[in-house]
Protein 1
Amino acid sequence: MLTYPIKFDPILKEKIWGGQKLKSLLNKESDLTNIGESWEISDIDNGVSVVNNGALKGKTLKDLLNTYKAALIGDKNYKVFGNKFPLLIKFIDAEKDLSIQLHPNDALAAKRHNSFGKTEMWYVLQAEKEANLIVGFNQEMNSETYLKHLKAKTLPEILNFEPVKEGDCYFIEVGRVHAIGAGVMLAEIQQTSDITYRVYDWDRVDANGNERELHNDLAIDAIDFNLENDYKVNYSKSINKVNEMVDCPYFTTNYLEITNTIKKENKVDSFIIYMCVSGEVEIETANATERIIKGETVLIPAAIKTFQISSKNAKLLEVYV
């Protein structure tokens, strides 16, 4: 069964800050109004992905893990994660600013939530003029100064605002304060976790006049005030070659710009995920060919050791553990 590239139904999430770009620019079909996220591959309990192609159509990602185990995710991954998929893959559209937030590390997340931590990275697909991201602080920081600004509701004064454009990449370590700004659409690769500590939400309220819950008591112990300002990722863009973007203990992400046919050999003992961020490609295994277009994601099982990718002009993010 694990002989072809597997696609999943996107799980669309309505958010107070979401918009319409996931429909208009990434071809997601939905009647929802404010779509903030498309969970492309997920093993989160309240949103498990379902296969939408081939012989495994209708099976969940949990079904695949329970049945195929290491053949799906690789021997080394199965020894660590068992029947739990290690990554959550998303597209995000921020029509409005997201809350200022951070994520706990593995130790805190396990202790408090029985969860993984949430190390993540962003790849910007599209950004409006003057759009930005918040990543870290704009000065040396400590808990005393941070809490003073938090109490005075002047937190944005000490945050680092980064202007962004298509192709920019950022690595968001656990403990780093961050937010996606209005007008940014991006791909997000992260550990399998839905744990977010919201610390400031721009004083906005919902239709009933209620503010969203904040998590400042939990957050203060989770913020890493010692992180260096090395969050922006510089990477090469050689054509028809693998260009490393992020290589961390939780995932590796590479950039591929393809204008021909490239042959691939899986030497990493892992599943491989491809997110199409521009154009379209065909991925051919010994037994099947699958086409993906901009905004689509595909999983190559670890059991598939050789395949090829063909395109006249496409950009992909390649992800594995």
Note: Residues 11-222 form a domain with the Jelly Rolls fold (CATH 2.60.120.10).
Protein 2
Amino acid sequence: MTEFFKNVPVIKYEGPESTNPFAFKYYDAEKVVAGKKMKEHLPFAMAWWHNLGANGVDMFGVGTADKSFGATPGTMEHAKAKVDAGVEFMKKLGIEYYCFHDVDLVPEADDINETNRRLDEISDYILEKTKGTNIKCLWGTANMFGNPRFMNGAGSTSSADVYCFAAAQVKKALDITVKLGGRGYVFWGGREGYETLLNTDVKFEQENIANLMHLAVDYGRSIGFKGDFYIEPKPKEPMKHQYDFDAATAIGFLRQYGLDKDFKMNIEANHATLAGHTFQHELRISAINGMLGSIDANQGDMLLGWDTDEFPYDVYGATYAMMEVLKAGGLTGGFNFDAKNRRPSNTPEDMFYAFILGMDTFALGLEKAAALIEDGRLEENIKKRYESFNSEIGQKIRNHSASLEELAAHACELKKPELPVSGRQEYLQSVVNSVLFK
């Protein structure tokens, strides 16, 4: 079989003192942290679309990276070459999972029946090439935003025929996800939203989206899919008003339409930024609602107002994220690098540098998060901040046994309350620094 990355060796852990660009500095797959091996805490996944497809094209210029892998793009030969390159890439990095959209795997044909035939062919090829390896599918999804028919969305479309095409794509993507052993299935509503209320029936569209999701759940369970369905919140881009704005909005939608028993959140760091939240916030909101499922591990640029999908390098952000994951008891999904090289980083070697960066960042974040939890000062401060609720009146508030009149009477007896205890934010930030840079 052709070797696509001849200049890249198998990537091994060499420690933080290493200057070898093709070595992990912090990601040691077998190292035990907080009772589990790193690779168990951090089931990393390769995004098929970015890593094997994105060539650096943007609104202002053509691609800068060659992702042909020796074949003609738009052909089944190219689809198979991407499989070969992807398997080699994952083997050299020790990555055991991948994620895909249907049209990442094969070129879409004019006839959906031909597209489905191609998906059957390529999924057979993936199973053949990954047989005897640890490589498997983390989750699959359908691209229901790229084709012009989805200009008004998929579940939110104004066309019944387009709605049927969306259903057909979801059905086939679920078939392939189950065939490849996927642990999850994602709905990313890239165009599930609207531009103006002048031509939009919001209630009608949301009911149709929920119906499509119910149909997907029913079909998935009927073919043996036992994993979680995910919603991946995103506030804008490409639609001005997207229905899955953030985790709280998506969770409310799921509960309103009775989907909360089958769905969890697939949280992306860059989407949190676009929603005006931190990555940590979106993870916390998902976790406290019992809906933290999987993570798209990337980051955005705070100076840019769009989805830049950069490889994560912010250790503070990764540490805060891993604190949420550890406190939640881990993920049902994994950490998909929904990230792409910067346009000038256009060599095959750059693909590996990017993944080494991302994997090392989250490995270091995992270690520091575990250390902060073990240190205990952050949690101790939280308990002290709310300890007034351990008083008699506080306990009545917590167990819902006090009436409004009783609470008001307590306030009148006090005449004037003391100020709440200090939040000690700056001290706690210094605690974080002391652990991170120990």
Note: Residues 378-436 form one domain.
